Amino acid sequence: MMENKARESLCRYLLASGDDELILGHRNSEWCGHAPLLEEDIAFANLALDEIGHAAIWYTLLADLRRENRDSYPDRLVFQREAQDFRNATLLELPNGDWAFSMLRQYLFDLYEMVRLHRLAESAYEPLSEAAQKISREEFYHHRHTSAWVRRLGLGTEESHRRMQEALDRAWPLAFQLFSGPEVDDVLVYSGYVPSAGYLQEAWSEAAAEFLEKCQLKVPADASGKRIPRDQHTPYLNVLVDEMQSVARLDPEASW
Amino acid sequence: MEENESQLAVFEARIARGEKIEPGDWMPEEYRRQLVRMISQHAHSEIVGMLPEGAWITRAPSLRRKMILLAKVQDEAGHGQYLYHAAETLGVSREEMIAALLSRRAKYSNIFNYPTLTWADVGVIGYLVDFAAILNQTMLARCSYGPYARAMVRICAEENFHKKQGQDIVIRMARGTPRQKAMVQDAINRWWWPTLMMFGPHDSDSPNTPVLKRWGIKTRTNDELRQTFVNQIAPELHALQLTVPDPDLRFDPESGNWQIGAIDWDEFWRVINGNGPCNQERMQTRLTAHVEGAWVREALAEFSKKHLAMG
Amino acid sequence: MGMTDTQLPRFQVFLQETPDSPFQDVGSVHAPDAELALLNARDVFVRRPECSGLWVTPVTSIYARTDQELAAQGGRDDPDEAGGQIEESYIVFAKQKSAGSQVMLGEVLAASPKAALRAALENFNRVKAFTWWVVPARDITRSAPEDTESMFAPAREKLFRQSTDFHTLTAMRSLQKEPRGLGAGR
After folding, report:
1. N or C: at which end does chain B have fewer Cβ atoms within 10 angstroms?
2. CB distance A251–B177 less than 8 Å?
3. Does residue A226 fall inside a structural domain?
4. pTM higher than 0.95, yes or no?
5. Could you tell me if residue C148 is inside a domain?
6. Is the ipTM of this complex over 0.90?
């Protein structure tokens, strides 16, 4: 039997996980029809599709914990919450920018997922470990795709290299927010439900730095430190959420 | 000249026997030319077609619809791929085809020059437009040119999902709230005629059809396909309490066909010649991505050169 | 929309539906290199379940001959001008069905593409095919068995991609109780 404190923490954790995937998936879907290669239109649509699917999985686990209806609760979370109630990392809500920024951001997130899901697969909370195993299959493929691209753009031309370095300079400090927040409570770590943020952050930054260096990309020196709470967002999220909810809000009673 | 005549006879005999023509086989230049035109136009249509629907992914009103639309758009890009590759087997490069598209020399299906104004349009496009495409594509799956026929078989298998998800949306809305019903009726009113025009000019105005039929590229005429479409869809819409924006639509018990009113071909030609509501916008989007993507393609080429032995 | 991949080479894609079925040609993709070609091939050709293996090879590595061409040469191919001495493995594909595509028949050892084709015609002499392809095995990039989980399994779970996931027929049947031939407009 789970204690209330652990349950509440786990709910926050699942909400943050779902929101990360939802917001990034939404951003990825914006590339449809606009990617620099037809092949990447398909690839990014695939990424987005997987991510929205992952969001649905996390939200469904959350529905179970909160004893809400599995079929309707996820949509309520997505389409009826105000922007300020979302708990995604800020990095993921930023506009797509150029291809370098999107690809680099995707790589950092995919690596984070690989490291995190690997440990989550051993969670003492069975629904979580099952979900993690399922999701990590797809994440493995995402990581393979994005790391191949980061390498090619990092080592390609002077211009592609410059753009990638700029993207990294911008995204790296923000990426640390993925690991922070009250969501990753001591009680969850202690109960064996989730891995410790400190461990994940270290594993992630080491692996990233090593890989990026091979792509001749320098990781910014000053990084970690600040624990930015996940309830702080940029105005970009308001615009995103408004658009995302615009049709659903036309007729909240309607079934679509 | 004689050699060509006997080769032509052999070629036409192969087609009459139902054999497939493959890359490397002898074929009349006209056959090759017609196929390149048809296949590339088809490919361009799939790609351009991603834009009007892709625009609604961000606003899809449920998680399930969001995923379905993403899957659909992904399919369309994939179909474009299959088709470009089929055309490439005929000796034209993707670069050439794209250049022709962006410079407005090449065409794509006119239907994609119309805007998607509401969420209901997404449903109607799946239901009507994709159904029309299925009818056309099912015919093309029997085409005499191997790579095109095989691409079409693959596409047909996937297209059925497109039509059904659209129909699902339309059914849901037609039986939903008054606002939803009004939204979907409005979408039908805007898409009905453009969809009928997708089948092309009337048979009497289609000079290409006889030779295309003899060479196994077309097996049914434009009017035949259009009639099949109307016969299927009109009663279904009525069953959903939706109307068709055609005061002359009536069922003829003798032929078993639903007769339609006159098609406004002036509008068709206006739109296809570039004066439709979205032609400019569609091409601009493509052109922009082309230009902005240049540094990416250069980086890929450079990486290959520097880091991989490309034999 | 970005579809301009001007200089990217083309790779032929072969797909294996189940572990027991042969690899067959399904089309091609453009990519700057083999690794991306494999990933692209997966995105383009494996959106629905039936796949347990994927191969890609540059189209330039395929040596192809049609039935017609071989017949014109008296059933054999041209002799090599300068034969290589080192034999290596070539994969043989043949199109046996008119509406089908190139299907893998097996492997032969040979010192050149032409020699490989000759060996193929000899080894598979009972096979009547429309077209023959031989490809050096070393030019083929293959998905690894351990890739099955991450590359192919996910397609099996996305049921909403299957048209059977939509119960439109049932919905329509319950609505269409009136006989056809209702007359215009309404």
Report:
1. N
2. yes
3. no
4. no
5. yes
6. yes
